[in-house]
Amino acid sequence: MGIRLRVRRVGKLPFKKIAEIDKESFDPTDFEGSVKYVGLNSIVENSGKIIDVETITEGDVKSNKYKFSPEHILYGEIASLFEQSSLS
Fold it and tell me: What is the pTM of this model?
C-alpha cells in the first residue's frame, strides 16, 4: 500500500500557511555514543538527494542542531543564491 500525494499550484503563500516549523533541538553536549548528522553540505543542490551522512560523536559539534524524522522537510539557505531542500 502506498501513499499518493497530489500537489497543486496555489501561487505564493507565506511558509507558515503551508508548513509548521518544528524547533525541537538536540544539545550536542548531552549525549553519549554517536548520532547521524546531516549538514547543508549533505544535500545536493537542486535535487533534494541526501549524501554523505556523517556519524558524529561527543565533542564533534559544538552548537545545538535540529532533530528531524521522515515526516520533516529539510530546508537550508546560506544565501539567497544557495537554497537546498530535501524530504527526510
Answer: 0.59
